[in-house]
Amino acid sequence: MRFAIISDTHDNVPAIRDLIDRLKTERIEFVVHAGDIISPFAIREFKTLNVKIYFAFGNNDGDRRLLTKIAEENGWEIGDIVIFPMGEDKGVVYHGTDKRIVEVLRNSNYRLVVLGHTHEPLIEKLEDKFIVNPGEVCGYLTGNRTYAIFEDGDVSIVEF
């Protein structure tokens, strides 16, 4: 199983398009987006990927009703906390940093916990799971545009 983990696109359409071009070469099965899509014009850019996408809402997302409508029209899933399949296991994606929620997710049975919001890449390996923040696609805060690839039980951060 191979899929991409992204976050914090923040309406940066040139970065989103660069990311999509890159992901088209990655042979991924689906994408997990850890929030801060921001607007309908940004989420529509992902249509060209032609894969299932699991979106978590971020703290800066605008019209959630319209973002939800667009996601549903494309067969994508979207919500505050979204569960996604990983073969026999499951993963979960959440944008925020609320310590209580993060702690519940860390102690859950999910094999992969994806977080966003900080714009800082993180891969934390626990006994039987990973905690991953892919960094930021937009490059606004760190100056680096990154995403993560999960493949066959391993995670890596990719700069583009």
Description:
The protein has helices at residues 13-23, 40-44, 64-73, 99-106; strands at 2-6, 30-33, 52-56, 77-79, 81-86, 89-94, 112-115, 122-125, 130-133, 146-151, 154-159. The model has no long low-confidence stretch (mean pLDDT 97). With 160 residues, it is an alpha/beta fold. The strands form 2 sheets. The chain has a 6-stranded mixed β-sheet, covered by helices on one side. It has a 5-stranded mixed β-sheet with strand order 5-6-7-9-8, covered by helices on one side. The chain has 4 helices and 11 strands. 21% of the residues lie in helices and 33% in strands. It has one domain: Purple Acid Phosphatase, chain A, domain 2 (4-Layer Sandwich), CATH 3.60.21.
* Strand segment count: 11
CATH class: Alpha Beta
SS content category: alpha/beta
- Radius of gyration, in Å, reads 14 Å
Shape: globular
DSSP strand (E) fraction? Answer: 25-35%
Query: Biggest β-sheet, characterized?
Result: 6 strands, mixed
Please identify which CATH superfamily we are dealing with: Metallo-dependent phosphatases
Q: What is the secondary structure topology, with strand pairs?
A:
Layout: E1 2-6, H1 13-23, E2 30-33, H2 40-44, E3 52-56, H3 64-73, E4 77-79, E5 81-86, E6 89-94, H4 99-106, E7 112-115, E8 122-125, E9 130-133, E10 146-151, E11 154-159
